[in-house]
Structure formats: C-alpha cells, structure tokens
C-alpha cells in the first residue's frame, strides 16, 4: 500500500488479550480495527507503547500485526512497532512484519540515545538499508533522555528518504513547532 499520513488520526492501538490474558484475542483485534475504520481513523500503530510492546514475544507481535493487516484489508495503513534498541533486532522483526503485509514500521530511538545527530543518523540509515517497509521514527522524550531528535536530524533523515514521518510523544508544544 502506498500511503500518505499528512492528516487525520493515526493512533496507537491497544492489544486485546483473551479474558485469562494468556493469549492474543484475534477477534478482539479485528473488531477494534473495524471500529477504528468506521470511526474515520486514517491509520493505526500496532505493537507500540499503548499496545504492550514490551510484554510481548516476537511471535505474538507478528500475530498481532498479521491480524490487524488482514482485518484492515488495505482500507487503512497498519504501522507496526519495532520496539528494540538495536538495529539487528529491529530489522529482524521488521522483516517478519513484511511477510504479513505491514505498511510500515515505527522505530524507537535507541534507549540510551547516542549523543549526536551523526550517530543517530547512522542508526536509522543502517535500519533503512536492512528493510523494505517505510520507516517512521518514534521519539519518546521520557525514554530518550540523552539526545532528542533535532530539526536538522529529522530533515536529514526525511531528505534522504530514510524515514517517512515521525511519531512523537511530548507535552512541549514549542518543541513540536520548531520541527515543522
């Protein structure tokens, strides 16, 4: 799917679990995806921070992504979390997502963020070289305390087509405005 996320609502989706919390609730995922589509959501982030990404194993992550992709059936893009600090594990799960038809991957910054833009750029450039899906960078300022994304770095990543967009969690509006 070729897509643009220039407008609309692209929220993270919670991960429905069975009542005993022992496994993924595939029917619940399908119902939630359908609810979002009917509500006008223009895309979904799955296996992200609201989706319990740190509590899931890789097989569960792929199961969630596959179920969301099948449920969306091309009507909205499904963008899946790459919740690992290192490029190798991000690339490994992204390649598994590619096999089930995901539309993009959202990559967290390394948890111990490098101290400069060049090192951060190399992190994302290595990942982009490894995968075929469009990448989104995910900045979570409460987790990345040593180096946040700068306007120059974001511009460089986008200019070199290494990333499609950015997902940011921040309560500081000034920071958002400075990176337009």
Descriptive keywords:
180 residues; alpha/beta; TIM Barrel; five-stranded parallel sheet; 39% helix; 12% strand
CATH superfamily: Aldolase class I
Which strand order do you get reading across the main beta sheet? Answer: 1-2-3-4-5
Q: Helix and strand succession? A: HEHEHEHEHEH
CATH architecture classification: Alpha-Beta Barrel
Quaternary: single chain
**CATH fold-level topology:** TIM Barrel
The rounded Rg comes to 16 Å
Shape: globular
Number of helices: 6
- Taken as a percent bin, the fraction of beta residues is 5-15%
Overall pLDDT:
82
As residue ranges, the low-confidence spans are: 166-180
User: Which percent range fits the helix content?
Assistant: 25-40%
Backbone structural class: alpha/beta
Please identify the top-level CATH class.
Alpha Beta
What is the makeup of the main sheet?
Answer: 5 strands, parallel
**How far is the N terminus from the C terminus?**
26 Å
Record field, number of beta strands: 5
Number of domains: 1
Description:
There is one protein chain. The chain has 180 residues and is of the alpha/beta class. It has one domain: TIM Barrel. Helix content is 39%, strand content 12%. It has six helices and five strands; from the N terminus they run H-E-H-E-H-E-H-E-H-E-H. Strands 1-2-3-4-5 form a five-stranded parallel sheet. Helix 2 links the parallel strand 1 and strand 2. Helix 1 crosses helix 2, helix 3 packs parallel to helix 4 and helix 4 packs parallel to helix 5. The longest helix is centred in the middle third of the chain and has 15 residues. It is globular and about 45 Å long. It starts with 25 loop residues before the first helix and ends with a helix.
């Amino acid at each position: 799917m070729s897509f643009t996320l220039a407008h609309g609502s692209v929220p993270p989706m919670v991960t429905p679990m069975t009542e005993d919390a022992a496994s993924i609730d595939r029917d619940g995922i399908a119902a939630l995806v359908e609810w979002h589509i009917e509500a006008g959501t223009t895309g979904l982030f799955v296996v992200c921070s609201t989706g319990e990404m740190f509590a899931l194993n890789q097989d569960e992550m792929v199961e969630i992504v596959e179920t969301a992709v099948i449920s969306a059936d091309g009507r909205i893009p499904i963008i899946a979390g790459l919740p690992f600090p290192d490029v190798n594990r991000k690339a490994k799960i992204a390649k598994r997502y590619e096999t089930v038809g995901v539309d993009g991957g959202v990559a967290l910054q390394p948890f111990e963020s490098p101290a400069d833009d060049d090192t951060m750029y190399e992190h994302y450039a290595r990942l982009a070289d490894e995968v075929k899906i469009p990448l989104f960078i995910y900045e979570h300022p409460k987790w990345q305390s040593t180096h946040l994304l700068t306007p120059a770095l974001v511009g460089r990543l986008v200019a070199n087509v290494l990333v499609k967009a950015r997902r940011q969690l921040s309560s500081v509006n000034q920071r958002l405005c400075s990176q337009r």
